[in-house]
Amino acid sequence: MSATCSAPAPIPTVTRPPLSLSRGGALALSIRVLGAGGMLLCYIVLARALRPAGFSEYAQAVVWLQILCVCGKFGLDNASLRYVSEYIAKGHGGKLRGFVRDSIRISLLISVLVMLGVIATVLFLWDTIGDSRARCLIIASVMIPLTSLRQIQEAGLRGVGQMFESQIGTAIWPLTLFLLAGIVWLGSSTDMSSPQATLLHLVSVGVVSVIVLRYFRRSPLCGGSETIDNTCRHQWADTAVAFFVAELLIVLKGRVCIAMAGAMLDRESVGLYAAMERFADVSLLGSQSLGLVIAPQFASLFAAGRYAEMRRLMWQGQILGLAFTLPVALGVACLGDSLFVLLGSDYRPGWTVLVALLASACIASFAGPAAYVLQMTGRERSMLAITGACATSNVALSFLLMRPLGILGLGVAQVVTSLVWTVGIRLSLRRHPMWQRPTIDRTDLSRGREIEVAR
Question: Going by C-beta distance under 8 Å and a sequence separation of 6 or more, which residues neighbour residue 392?
Answer without folding.
Answer: none
